[in-house]
Amino acid sequence: MSLTVLRPGMLTTVQDLGRYGYQKYGVVAGGALDTGAARVANLLVGNDDREAVLEITLGGASFAIDRPMIIAVSGGDLSATLDGSPLPLWRPVYAKAGSVLSFGACASGCRTYLAAGGGFDVPEVMGSRSTYLRGAVGGFAGRALKADDELGVRPPNGRTMRLASLIASAVREDGLAAASWHASHFAVAGSAEEQVVRAVPGTHYDRFTLESREALFGQSYRIGAQSDRMGCRLEGETKLLLSLPLELLSEAVALGTVQAPPDGDPIVLLADRQTTGGYPRIAQVASVDIAVLAQLKPGSRFRFEAIAQTEAERLYVAGERDLRLLRAAVSLKLRPLA
Amino acid sequence: MTNADRGWELLPLGDGALLIRFGDAIDEALNRTVHAFAARLEKEPFAGMIECVPAFASVAVHYEPLTVMRSRSQDEARHETVYETVYARVERVLDSFVAADAMEERTVIEIPVCYGDELGPDLAFVAAHCGLSEDEVIAIHSGGAYVVHMIGFAPGFPYLGGMSERIAAPRRQTPRTIIPAGSVGIAGKQTGVYPIATPGGWQLIGRTPLALFRPERAIPSLLHAGHEVRFKPISRSDYDRYGEGAR
């Protein structure tokens, strides 16, 4: 095997970009919560951005690397170390056989993604390698990783092999063999006291009281302790209330749908959301800012900022272009010097 | 962006999905239209379309904006937003869509249920609440024909229409933290089957040994929208034997 779990930490699961085409059967889309970080980690090791990675939540996880491989850790800063040396994030690193990768306290963010050259080798279920915990489907035996689990890595492609040979020889003063270049401009887990999450008014926005609509885009929200991969439960001072009672039929929801149940505290639906829902939808988080929510720890605060649908689309397209640029930049690094 | 006179309304659902509402009621004919339209879109997907999610009275179309943008025709090139392009593509299908008048024969799926005792711990409550005997509740529940309006909430979970109001019962005051897979329950005027173990507040009247969620199959849900469901009472020994046969 290629990687052995020494300590699983709070929650470590195998994830990719999700399971599509089965939502009409009630199967959750799932996948990495911070897809941007997961994709960058993959691109940095020469993988396709859809390969399976490990989603490591909060600190405490550690892994033994059983055979040499190129790895990258992207997302929240969970104080990663490789054989005791601080491991730089957003950068490909060559790990020798027998090295130990550990994660400690959360310095910023709360989820980080470990990609290995080739991609983690778990069977595809319904076209995806992501773990759907509640359904006990996909990933590693349909569950979170435990100590002593052994994970394989799929055969690396040519890009990955060339990257590995380039980086293996780039040994730095601290003993780490790491690339001199990085992609840390993709980090969203900033140090700002209060983060901003951009959102578009939702399909039932007009059905809420004026006070509620103003509160949504005016007040500060706290991430509730009950938040998980399914959704971010928010706590705000002013509750969100409908002007008139509304009888709604269940209908499809999407990533980032902000539902307001009768108690008036909104829930932002994340990767493991149900496919349909029956609560009124007051807003819709822009896809690009899902990562901000994915990196906020329970107890931290943020504000919503209202943007137009057009702007949310523009941000999405710009985000995709950035990822394509990164892929191209990695290719350039592989080109032999003239 | 409504087109109420033509019977539908299109709305954005974030920056990667569009919602088509055909109405706002639970209605057989409306629900047939919804599923027929979803099937039509799936048969003729537009570039960038990911999947369709039909519900009681609506269909959501999930799409990948960049693929939509890159596949724009000359006509579509003037669109200012990706949503506008998806709107036009969906509307084109709607324009040529005629809801089938012919009532297709419904596929009937029989679900064996062992009612009462430890597999249906709330059967006595439902009977007492409705002023019926336990056998009467079983007879009414298994005597009905139920239509699957949509699958949602959990993998393979059917929203069923057609339960007799004589056996309607309120949800439990305190939800159970875990309900075993296969549990058959009643909540208000609805009945349903839990395909996977989840927390829940439904009154549990029995359990089926049949797997409603089958992740290893190409189509992971036993039930599909439009199916007709009938419940068949089985004994505890049949329930246990069924389990052995399936494993």
TrEMBL record, chain A:
SMART domains: AHS2. Signal peptide: none annotated. Residues 24-322 form the Carboxyltransferase domain. This is Biotin-dependent carboxyltransferase family protein. InterPro entries: CT_A_B, Cyclophilin-like_dom_sf, PxpC. Keywords: ATP-binding, Hydrolase, Nucleotide-binding. The keyword Phosphoprotein does not apply. One of its GO terms (molecular function) is ATP binding. It comes from the Bacteria. It comes from Paenibacillus arenilitoris.
From TrEMBL, chain B:
It is an enzyme of class 3 (hydrolase). Keywords: ATP-binding, Hydrolase, Nucleotide-binding. InterPro entries: CT_C_D (IPR003833), Cyclophilin-like_dom_sf (IPR029000), PxpB (IPR010016). Pfam families: CT_C_D (PF02682). Its EC number is 3.5.2.9. The keyword ATP-binding applies. One of its GO terms (molecular function) is 5-oxoprolinase (ATP-hydrolyzing) activity. It comes from the Bacteria. Residues 8-223 form the Carboxyltransferase domain. This is 5-oxoprolinase subunit PxpB. The gene is pxpB.
